[in-house]
Amino acid sequence: MAFALAADAARPDDCLELCRFAEPSLATLPAPERPSGDAEWISAQYIEALIAEPEPESALRAARGRFAPDSPVRRDYEIRLLILLERRSEAVDQAARWTSDSPKDPSAWRALARARVAARDFAGAAHALSALRALDDSKSESSLFALARHYEAQRPDAARAVIADILLRHGANPALYPALASVMANAKAEADLARLETELLGLGYPRQPVFWARLEIAVQAHDWPDVLRQVALLRTSPGARFTDTQSAWLGTTGHLALACLDGGSGVQASLLEFISDHPGNLRHFRRVLVALLEARKIDTAAGVLTLAGGLYPDSRGIIASRATIAARQ
User: Fold this and answer.
1) Tell me: the pLDDT tens digits for 276-319?
2) CA distance 107 to 98
3) Interatomic CA distance for residues 302 and 264, integer angstroms
4) Which helix (H) or strand (E) holds 325?
5) How far is CA 136 from CA 61, 73, 104, 141, 142, in A?
6) Cα(48)–Cα(172) distance, rounded to whole angstroms?
7) Which of 47-56, 73-82, 91-100, 232-241 has the lowest mean pLDDT?
8) Exposed, middle or buried: residue 71 (CB in 10 Å: 0-12, 13-18, 19+)?
9) SS3 helix, strand, coil % of the chain, rounded to 5?
């Protein structure tokens, strides 16, 4: 239960502490009594928490120290972290070696495509994606991965060809659309979202995935009038019932938009009250703080920081935000 609360990167400090406690305890058990895969799972949680901190150098050392050199888990982490550390040529070399060692492993080709895009080698990325498709053609996840890489490479025509193929082969499945819209949101592909909305209307499916994607784009851009428009659309449009996390984020973004647009004390107090009742995770707190500081709502940011500090007292991001807010008060 503790890992379920901490290991989602909402509480990276807690997750690190739990891993440091759990690993020695697990090692004391006789080998036959150790649950299969537990040590590897704990190591993965530890690395993910270091990435969330963010401590990519420490995460890279942990991946290399905790997994065998030929472990697919280690190789995937190494390539992801080398890209994060902007050591792109090393990432490409590692991924190319992996595809040579395991030419039928889709994970190896995904890693190579990601590394080639990071290195701006778009022809090499296209080759890796072709190899991936040949191995893993039946799954929408592989096509969504290819779409994300084409967006990263700024190849809109290739992206739209993938979208057309995805809709042709998987468009009858309503579960596809939230994932597809999310990829478009990450790329800020608003023209493609408009086409996706038309597709959903034609099929008679709810447009919620497009509205969620547009809300994410608007929040990232701090376009508060558009945030309010998307919040209203989501609240009034038919579709699946929101999860608790979705409801909390929808309410937070609505109150945040009003707080950033309006200096009135009542609006600011409403935001703080809502967050107190629906605190969300650490990433949500960080996004709210950044938005309030940009909008120069310093006192409201200080109130949010007090709430965040109560839940995440050891978060380095929260500690750094205290100094930022204190300097501006």
Assistant:
1) 999 888 888 989 999 999 999 999 999 999 999 888 887 777 88
2) 9
3) 16
4) helix 316-328
5) 31, 19, 10, 9, 7
6) 34
7) 47-56
8) middle
9) 80, 0, 20
